[in-house]
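Field: sequence (string)
Field: structure_tokens (string)

Example rows 1 and 2, in order.
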Amino acid sequence: MIGYVTLGTNDLERAAKFYDALAEELETPRMMEFDTFIAWGKPDGPAGVAATKPYDGKTATAGNGTMVALQAKDKAQVDRLYKIALANGGTDEGPPGPRGDEGFYAAYFRDPDGNKLNAFTMTA
């Protein structure tokens, strides 16, 4: 089981604004916070997400082929998360809609550091 996913950032304040907005929609508070690291999640809840400056002090880069999927409760929340992401410095990677079969509804976007995320719900 995945406990949490950590994504690198070069600007923690900017990342915090982006992830605070998504977390508010998902009703998921900040769980931990340090000078170089912020995590959103619920103790003993589903997997959380963290934004961190790299420990080695080097520049954070987005992984090619790496993506974090945020589970939404329904299609309307997928739509809202996509809009929230774009309104908070995210970029479009694919608007909300069905993917593959009709049982998977998702939207794709990148955070301000280029990390790829998706908001999805299973509809079947």
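Row 2 begins here:
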Amino acid sequence: MKVIHYDNHFNGNEWFVIISIVVGLLAVLVIPKRFTKKTSTIYLLTGVFFGFFFDHTLSVIPVSYYDLNDTSLFELTDFLSHVMYSSYSYFFFYLYDYLKVKARNSPLYILIWTFISVGIEKISAILGVYHYKHGYTIFYSFVIYLIVHSIWVALYYVIERHGEKEY
């Protein structure tokens, strides 16, 4: 069984989360606007929601496949790591719209973003944001990212079709 060595100091994992939030949100503010404020908010919150949902589904008892950051307890940095996902999701939708990805090319787009996400998670794990347990590997995250990104593409089309309608 792999022994997890938690690091209880303010260092790599906290800096990664903070820098990701600052750089990501600054980039969101700087790039040209493509969406209404309402749609932008949905796209930002999508990352937070899915990150929170999957992290708390997979990292709590009874499954507890990984811990976030410095302890197995929920901390402020854990919450901030969910906020960190907001800019990632926004750029997923932004580039999908900007590149005018056709539905038939969506699987390739999803696959590319899945590899990007796995790469970012790998860096996060090296820096101590994720501590895998009970046989969990990044391969499982790959499958989860495929599912999440597929849902995001479907959400994009729902919002494009129905998002700004007044009922």
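free_text_note (row 2): Residues 12-162 form one domain.
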